[in-house]
Every structure is written in C-alpha cells, then in structure tokens.
Amino acid sequence: MELEFYGAAGEVTGSCHVLRVAGRTVLLDCGLLQGGHDAAARNTAPFPFDARRIDAVVLSHAHIDHCGRLPLLVKRGFRGPIYTNAACRDLLPVLLRDTAELAARDVERSNRRRDPDERPAVALYDLQDVERTLELVHALRYDERRALLPGLEVCVRDAGHILGSSSLELWCSEGPVTRKLVFSGDLGQYDSPILQDPHHFDTADLVLMESTYGERLHRDRAATVVELGEIIAQAARDRGNVLIPAFAVGRSQEILYLLGLHHDAWQLRNWQIFLDSPMAIEASKIYWRHAERFDADAVHLRAQFAAMPELSNLHLCRTPDESRAINELRSHALVIAGSGMCNGGRILHHLMHNLERPECHVVITGFQAPGTLGRALVDRAPFVRIYGHSIRVAAKVHTLGGLSAHGDQDDLLKWYEAFEGRPPVRLVHGEPRSADALRAKLAALGAQVAVAKAGERLDLVTMEGLR
Ligand SMILES: [Zn+2]
User: Fold this and answer.
1) Looking at domain 2-216+405-459, what is its CATH homologous superfamily?
2) The pLDDT of residue 227
3) Domain spanning 221-399 has what CATH number?
4) Is the pLDDT confidence value at 75 over 90?
5) Assuming Cys at both sites, which of 44, 86, 169, 286 could form a disulfide with 139, CB separation 3.0 to 4.6 Å?
6) Considering the entire predicted model, what is its pTM?
7) Contact 187, 210 (CB under 8 A)
C-alpha cells in the first residue's frame, strides 16, 4: 500500500498522484501542466506508469490542471472507470472538448509555419479521445461511501472550490491494515458566493493538501464587492466600457451572480451586459441545474430567477459575429469574456478596442501567471502586444483579490485544524514559496508536515517518515 507523487509536487499544475492498494493502481486526478516554456513537452512525455495497467481514476474536479490529461491516458490505453461527483461529470464535456479544439487549432497554426523538412506537430489528443474518455465517467454522490475496488472505499465531499469540486476521503485496506487518506483537491474560500463551504473532516491517517495560496491572505470579500460596484459607477461617469476577463467555469458564474445580486444598487439597468463565451454559457447552464449544491443566499436568489441570472439586459454571445458587434459600443457595455489570463480568446479583441481609451476599465479578478497578457496588465505595462499590434494602455486596470476560487492561508489552516489529533500532511499544488510558508504554519501547530516531491513514495503500511 503506497502513495507516489507525480504531478503538482512542488508546482501548481498537473495534479496527479498514484495510489497502490491491494494489487490495484488508482490515479487521483490526471491534470494538464500549464504555463512555463516546457509545459507542452512535459505534457507529451511518457507517464511514469503504464496507462493500460491503471485500474481506476478518482477525479477531484473539472479544472483542466486536474482533469486535462484524462483523454491522453485513454489514448495511451486506459479503459477503467473514472469516478467523480455528478456535477463535475456534467462540466467535464465542456472543459475537455474545448481543450481538444484549442489543441487542434494550435497544431494547425504551428503546422502552417513549419519548415517542409520538419515533422508535423500532432495534438496531445483529439475530440474522439475526449468522447471515449467521457464514456468512462461514473458519477458519485457527495457524502456517500462507496467500495470502488477490493481494498478501496471512497467518499467525495464538497470542497467549495467550483461546482462539483471534491475533497476525497479514501479508505485503503490490505490484510488487517486500513489507512484513511484525505486528499483536499482544491479548497474554496469560506463564505464565497454561490457555493457551500469546504467540508470539514474529523480523522485521517494522512492528509494530502493543496497550498496554492499558502503564503497569502486575500483581501476581504465584502470590500472587494464594494470596490467592483465603485468601478462600475466610475465607468458610468467616465462614459466608458468595463471588461472583465474571466475563467469560463466558476469565475464567470460568480461575476454574473454578483451582478444579479447588486443589479439595482449598481444601477445596472443602464448597462448592456455581455457573457461573451460559449463555454461560460454552457457552464452557467450546468451551474443552474445543480442548485442542490448552492449555499442559502444563492438558493434564495435562484428562487427569483428562471435562468441564471435573469437580467433583462444580459446578452449571451455564442457566435463570433455577436462578439464582434460589441466593438461598436463606446460606453455602458460590461463584457465578461475568456480567457481568464488574457492569453487567448475573445477578450483579446475587446482589449484591443478599449485599452487605448482612458474612459474604459479592466477588472482583473483571478490569478495571472507570469508571461501572460493579464500579468502584464496587472504589472502596469505601458504598452502591450495584441495580435502583433503595440497597444498603449490608457484604460484603468483594477486588480480585485477577494474573488479567488482558492482559500487563502487562513482558510487552509482552518480546514486543517478541523482534523482531530493533527494528522501528518504532505503539501501539493503550490509554488515552492507558498508550500513552504504553509508548511511552517502547519508545523507550528504541531503537524508532521513536508512538501511532496515528484517521484517520492510513501509506504502507507509502515507509515515510515509520517509519524
Ligand atoms: Zn481548481
């Protein structure tokens, strides 16, 4: 019985851990690596295991850094079941099909520029691989303990991060020994809009815990919401537009929710609101169908609307023509579009038309990786390049910290402190600085804690080095 770290050890993306129990091998997540010059090469590299010999996958949530290499696993011979929560199962087709389509477009572009004697590029996987993957997905109910394989029982618990996100509770048995492993998945903030708080566990023999914001405290959420209202009011006085780059799943729905909640106070009837992302439109429909996972405030708001949310001035833009038509509007257009880090997608042409206008406002609401256009805007670059053009940044750029989908250091500590008896911890899913800061905090609480290393194996029978 052992656990081996493969991805998201010492970094944020590429979540993947290998659990061996009673002669079976199970993956916890199988995510894509994102960002960094070598991500593409690392994604295509062979797995350190034979995909055909993996018996099952248990998936924490539908973010691409957790599920994005599942179709590659299938392409390389995996045929077992993929277990995840029902809402996550509903979001997976949206995310994985989009990833395959983006990959196909990237390959087409690089093959057009290729020298005749160079080998043509091949996509990591295609839509067929995605469809075969989706056929393997089995839904698990929250809070229901299920035997998945001989020696392995699993219960998925709400992690409050995005819709359908789970922390995994795994009971592993070999002969007389049973160990309970808790994998946090990605943990949401407490009191975040729409979703419930992360589930608190009582016991564990080993905790595998994310550390994305292990060194940071988010700005107060209430202050963040007030600030968003003030930005919209200022943009109205300036007679400009508001652009909000947003991830299609999670962030787009939170922003829409806030706009619905504060529709009157923020005088949004004077605005035209655009959700300019087919993927975000699909994800919003799925959020709406899973109201059973909403918190009390969101249930209350939902009762007042027939769709999510029912704003009379909300336009859902599916086609590129609908998206381009927004460029005609000089003021009172509020545009939510992807990508969240401005490194692609429809937000680019909106930025191109609005960045040079001082009366316009850009609202950054999520993590911006180094090297992305979003990061350049946050860092106040005076000029940026979009579609090969140099664009002067005259619009006002606002960075709102309080809307993150990840809990901050206090949230992470609060989640851990709910365990009885300070179980041992391995930290995953964090840049080294964040993981190390959280390690020091947990150690001060008396936990046996270390940052997971790629390739490290833990013996869950002897628990060597864990107690
Ligand atoms: Zn996530």
Assistant:
1) Ribonuclease Z/Hydroxyacylglutathione hydrolase-like (3.60.15.10)
2) 96
3) 3.40.50.10890
4) yes
5) 86
6) 0.90
7) yes
